[in-house]
Design brief:
heterodimer; A: alpha+beta; Alpha-Beta Plaits; 8-stranded mixed sheet; two-stranded antiparallel sheet; about 25% helix; elongated; B: Transcription Regulator spoIIAA; 5-stranded parallel sheet; 4-stranded parallel sheet; 21 helices; about 15% strand; globular
């Protein structure tokens, strides 16, 4: 006798919602799984009528896309929810933002109106702060990096140690002008990076590994990394400000 | 005086360590009070990794009770892993709390909850990182008062050098009493310094201050006597018992960590204490008498806790949960209430003879029938008489057959190896029992797709139990016996493939035994092994038996005692035991009689249902059994809020009821 999941009467999905949230401050140390647990519990506390899967272990229908690595902050993380009532997106945003701890901040909720969201996330814009690194040192390293065609780095992935090119997908690596906000705090080089999403993905720590490899750039203390945006790439990412290299991925849903 | 957060210094280290999220705090329902707003500051520690410590109910309860006090605050701290410890030492970052990242050394009191003795080395790490001298005698007014609690504190002698005080039993009320004594002493301008404060605590009769007791030894190593060395300090220190659990419905706002923990569920304690009388079970002996929560308060705690946490599973905790007099009412009412809300209920610690299928069906109405766990503990009928766990083989077979027949596919059975009077044969009978379980289960379920897992570990004799006089089995014999059992199960060609076998080797049990029944001389071993790098002794990947034995060799070099003396030696009736001056209420003569009954394989009934047999607790402590049925119900409890309330789009047509809420 094969095991049969219990017959269950599951309410149908009537609406899908897309969330943008930020991971800030000390909560940048949460992993994707940490966020998932926190979100699912916040959904239960706020009473969002989630759609559930069937089977032995029903789980709420939530899709997570392209989460930032543990330890990096982000202003642009995306999640999709399936719910069983038609809800007011702004009410959901406010309720979830209130229910999640400060530092996991729900910034936007829109109703899903267009498919293929994952394909809209073509590139990310990262800012990498390097406390203790002099501007000139960073400038030299950046030019060496940009002069190379290919820089192979290694990283331990789920499928073992992989070697891949960390240079090709980097569309922009801009060093901000040397204008410290707080002159007393010592040097701090700041990089704006535009990275095309490829497999395996090139992450900020891969870019740092590449800088170390080709230019011996070794920050004296851990860097601070924040994803500022992800979305569709503009036609020519090399012109204008790095911040304008991608557009709003939720635009097709706003109708 | 304000106390600054050390988070800025810590933050720079976090990218360099594994699972940094465990050090950042930010749990739901955590409390942060301004330092200067209160007079008394408690740092509470569960001396293990965050993932183990954060769900601990004892710490969560005290955390909340203290933080509700208008003139006190409590923050939590946990053991840091060796990678962070090394970085903290290199960068001068002290042991910190996860709530406000304040240095532990700045608090008035540093309370540690010891569920197990294997956390002792982690305490030394925390003291050292906090800048608190390891030895109580080296501390002054600037250092926190170090207070130990938890079950292991019923014999705190092994850590007597390192703690200032120990508190026995339920903490809810005594933690407030201590807070009051510290508050008054501070308000008076700290008269008499640290010594006077400890004296005030000791004179209550409910706080044990080891330095106010002298221990004399006989030439052969046994204790001659333990005597107070200050006027007004009592000969024996009493445990604390909360008599009305309904009045103490804590935790009211359970902590929900961001990091993954070992218990991804909410817990509600449905009763405290157990009088089943299992002779190996220290928890059952030291938490008497049984005190139940009423059905109504249990339901309110579940309801309130779920609303405040968002957990999807609730464990109804106790030492033997199916024994609650109203468990059937509670289980049915909760299952009704949460039907259709994807909320699971679980009943850990279910006795074979208290299990019934109606109850199990209620608990799994949602269809999750992952596995059932029972603990016969002894492999043979004879052994179960010795330990007074009167579960017959027929009971067990009938119960598992019912479970398999009702859709469960996996049953886990817990046993112990090395019980007093045990022979190879007693343990090898486990193989036969497991085969019968599979045979019966296949018949009952009509499928071969069922499993039984045998889990077995070495028995450690504990203080305040009838086995406190028993010889612990040496680890070589334990391991040899477990190997024989494993081979026998593997040789079973018919059923062996359906039987899983998990065992814990005997070496950690010997160290636990040394610490459990140790006296003050064992403190030197703990310090020695810690100085050599011992940490996280409850984790097999960190535990080093050889390091402990080497440390014991050094520490015991000039004395008449050794590890065997503390572990594998049987004690005589009149030997002064290191914990005799700690009063759990149990009468030592009754314990001895029960030990003799064990050797004669005579069982003793549960005093909830039969006349009192004078174990001594209720007389000595002024307590009484408190069991229901209370007759309370869930009638009149507010209905669960409809999901989606307040979130529905104004423009949407009134939706058909797509949410199936049972209530």
């Amino acid at each position: 006798m094969a095991r049969q999941p219990p017959a269950r009467d599951v309410a149908p999905t009537v609406q899908r919602l897309r969330l943008r949230y930020a991971k800030r401050g000390r909560l940048r140390f949460t992993s994707t799984r940490d966020f998932q647990r926190a979100l699912e519990r916040a959904l239960r506390r706020t009473g969002v009528p989630m759609a559930y899967s069937q089977g032995f272990n029903p789980h709420p229908r939530i899709s997570y896309t392209n989460a930032a690595p543990t330890g990096t902050a982000s202003e642009a993380e995306y999640v999709e929810l399936a719910v069983t009532s038609v809800l007011d997106p702004e009410a959901v945003r406010a309720a979830l933002d209130e229910a999640l701890p400060p530092g996991l901040d729900v910034l936007e909720v829109v109703e899903v109106r267009a498919p293929d969201f994952a394909e809209r996330l073509q590139a990310s814009i990262w800012v990498i702060e390097l406390p203790g690194v002099e501007h000139a040192v960073a400038a030299a390293a950046v030019s060496t990096f940009l002069a190379a065609d290919v820089i192979e780095v290694q990283r331990l992935t789920k499928s073992g140690m992989r070697t891949f090119d960390a240079r090709g997908p980097v569309l922009r690596l801009d060093l901000r002008p040397d204008a410290p906000e707080d002159p007393g705090a010592g040097p701090c080089a700041i990089l704006d990076v535009v990275v095309r999403h490829v497999t395996p993905s090139v992450r900020p720590d891969d870019v740092l590994a590449a800088l170390r490899l080709v230019a011996d750039l070794v920050p004296p203390v851990p860097s601070r990394v924040t994803r500022l945006a992800q979305g569709p790439l503009v036609a020519d990412a090399s012109v204008g400000a790095a911040m304008d290299a991608v557009t709003d991925p939720l635009a097709p849903d706003r109708g | 005086m304000s106390v600054d957060s050390v988070f800025p210094q810590l933050e720079a280290l976090l990218p360099l360590v594994t699972k940094p999220v465990q050090y950042v705090g930010g749990e739901l329902n955590a409390v942060s009070k301004p330092w200067d707003s209160v007079a008394v500051h408690w740092a509470l520690m569960y001396p293990d990794a965050y993932e183990v410590g954060v769900p601990n109910q004892g710490v969560q309860i005290l955390y909340e009770v203290i933080n509700e006090h208008p003139d006190a605050l409590a923050e939590r701290t946990y053991a840091v892993w060796p990678d962070l410890e090394a970085l903290m030492r290199a960068n001068g970052v002290p042991q910190f709390t996860v709530d406000c990242h304040r240095p532990v050394g700045a608090f008035d009191l540093f309370g540690l909850s010891f569920s197990t003795e294997l956390g002792y080395t982690n305490m030394l790490t925390a003291l050292d990182l906090a800048g608190i001298p390891l030895h109580a005698r080296d501390r002054d007014e600037s250092h926190p008062v170090v207070v130990a609690g938890g079950h292991a504190a019923f014999n705190p002698e092994a850590v007597a050098d390192f703690i200032d005080a120990a508190v026995l039993g339920d903490g809810e009320q005594v933690v407030l009493a201590i807070t009051e004594i510290v508050r008054t002493w501070k308000a008076e301008g700290r008269p008499g310094g640290r010594d006077e404060l400890l004296l005030r605590l000791a004179r209550t009769g409910g706080v044990y201050v080891p330095s106010f007791y002298d221990v004399d030894y006989l030439p052969d190593g046994r204790i001659q006597r333990v005597a107070p060395n200050r006027p007004g300090v009592p000969w024996r220190v009493s445990k604390h018992t909360v008599m009305d659990l309904d009045e103490w419905p804590y935790p009211k706002a359970p902590l929900v960590p961001l990091a993954e923990s070992v218990h991804e569920r909410m817990s509600v304690e449905i009763f405290r204490g157990c009088t089943r009388g299992c002779r190996f079970c220290q928890a059952g002996m030291i938490t008497r008498p049984v005190r139940e929560r009423s059905a109504r308060v249990i339901a309110e705690m579940v309801d309130n806790g779920l609303a405040k946490t968002g957990y999807e599973e609730v464990g109804l905790l106790s030492l033997s949960s199916a024994d609650h007099s109203e468990i059937a009412v509670v289980a049915k009412a909760l299952a009704d209430r949460y039907e259709g809300t994807e909320t699971g209920l679980s009943l850990p610690s279910t006795r074979v003879d208290a299990f019934n299928i109606e109850l199990a069906n209620e608990l799994t109405r949602n269809g999750r029938r992952s596995g059932l766990t029972f603990a016969p503990e002894g492999g043979s009928e004879r052994m179960r008489k010795v330990i007074n766990k009167m579960v017959t083989e027929e009971d067990l077979i009938r119960t598992v057959a019912t479970a398999y027949g009702n859709g469960w596919r996996s049953v886990k059975l817990y046993f112990m190896c090395g019980l007093p009077t045990e022979t190879d044969d007693d343990v090898l009978q486990i193989a036969e029992l497991a085969s019968r379980v599979i045979e019966t289960g296949r018949q009952a379920s009509g499928t071969k797709d069922i499993r039984c897992t045998v889990s077995i570990g070495g028995f450690v004799p504990k203080p305040h139990t009838p086995f406190q006089w028993a010889a612990q089995l040496d680890h070589e014999t334990t391991d040899a016996r477990l190997r024989k059992l494993r081979d026998l199960i593997r040789a079973d060609r018919k059923y062996g493939k359906s039987i899983g076998f998990r065992y814990h080797d005997g070496k950690p049990g010997i160290v636990e035994g040394l610490l459990s029944r140790g006296d003050r001389r064992v403190g030197a071993v703990i310090e020695e092994v810690w100085r050599g790098g011992a940490r996280f002794d409850g984790w097999s990947e960190h535990f080093s038996f050889d390091a402990w034995m080497a440390a014991a060799q050094t520490a015991f070099a000039d004395g008449p005692v050794d590890v065997d003396w503390f572990t594998t030696r049987e004690r005589e009736q009149n030997e002064v035991l290191p914990w005799d001056h700690i009063d759990s209420g149990l009468d030592k003569d009754w314990l001895w009689e029960d030990w003799q009954d064990a050797l004669s394989e005579v069982d003793v009934e549960d005093c909830r249902w039969t006349p009192c047999y004078d174990c001594g607790v209720c007389d000595q402590m002024g307590t009484e059994i408190q069991i229901g049925p209370s007759g309370t119900t869930l009638l009149g409890m507010p209905a669960l809020p409809q999901r989606g309330e307040g979130l529905v789009a104004a423009s949407a047509a009134p939706a058909p009821t797509v949410v199936a809420d049972g209530a």
